[in-house]
Design goal:
49% helix, alpha/beta, 5-stranded parallel beta sheet, globular, 6 helices
Length: 141
Amino acid sequence: MKALIVDDDPDVVNFLTQVAAAFGDVEVESANSAEEALTMVIRSNYDLITLDIVMPGASGLEILSMVRDLCPHAVVAIVSAHVPEEISDELAGCADVILTKPVPLETIHRVLAGAARVSEAVQDIRILGDLPTSVRMGVEG
């Protein structure tokens, strides 16, 4: 599984990176700005993306819909100490979960486990495209 942590606070990035590494087979990359994150999402595909909202420059909310369009199968989690009370329905629909810092360790584990299950399911489905047509259709022959 491949994760991208987007936060301008190095302590948050270090904590989430350590938790993900302890979780298991997770390749973690990080970005300290929304602009850097957008560049990374354009270049690579991720299974889990955490977005802080309040950062220098563009906010996580400003790139949220673009991130969702570029990585439609990724689990996208807003992880921020400053979650605005009024997030438009459109933006809220782009995120899979909105978490307020500090996030309990158990919640982070559940997000990682969910993202791993989604990633595994997507990979299982993509493998079907590699099977011979007769196997995909349930025809023996």
